[in-house]
Specification:
This protein has 177 residues and is mainly α. 67% of the residues lie in helices and 5% in strands. A two-stranded antiparallel ribbon has the order 1-2.
Length: 177
């Protein structure tokens, strides 16, 4: 590693008390210095979860903390753990879908939105209308070219739950024209 890279790395690390430098040996002198930001909230929640892996409240807080820093891989994995512990808790599937979507994993996002829709209990529908509308919209959008008939069904459901969603209105118009 050359002195310029080392100096830059030390500057970055020295400039913030919340940074940890991680370096790896490579073949070239100009190997990049990887800097990973530490997050005290995530670190504390990880310790809580290590102590009690079935603490769904701490797991949900950890998954949300991962989402807050756009760590979609860890967010998805943490939401999946919650889904195993609470298979009937629909918000975990919606959150998985959101994390997958944010990570640009459209196939798994669609599957997670479908699972969300199927796990919303009848008594939860009223409180879940906006999320249901979005889930149906996402699925309709995903299926518009591969299965237009199915997409029409989904967009109709989306508009049933949120008739004011302009993106859904536009998609419905497009699908039905």
């Amino acid at each position: 590693m050359n002195s310029k890279s080392l100096f830059l790395g030390l500057l970055i690390v020295g400039g913030s008390g919340l940074m940890n430098a991680q370096t790896s040996q490579s073949q070239g002198e100009n190997a990049p210095v990887v800097v990973k930001q530490s997050n005290p909230t995530i670190d504390a929640l990880k310790k809580q979860v290590e102590t009690n892996p079935k603490d769904t409240e701490s797991l949900a807080k950890l998954a949300t903390a991962y989402q807050d820093v756009s760590d979609w891989t860890n967010a998805v994995e943490t939401w999946k753990k919650i889904s195993v512990l609470l298979p009937d808790w629909s918000p975990s599937y919606y959150s998985q879908a959101y994390a997958y979507q944010s990570a640009k994993d459209d196939v798994n996002a669609k599957l997670a939105y479908e699972k969300y829709i199927s796990t919303v209990k009848p008594e939860e529908i009223e409180a879940s209308k906006k999320n249901l509308a979005y889930a149906y919209f996402y699925i309709a959008f995903s299926e518009q070219t591969t299965d237009p008939a199915k997409a029409k069904e989904h967009i109709a459901k989306s508009l049933q739950y949120d008739p004011s969603n302009q993106d859904a209105v536009k998609l419905s118009t497009t699908l039905n024209s």
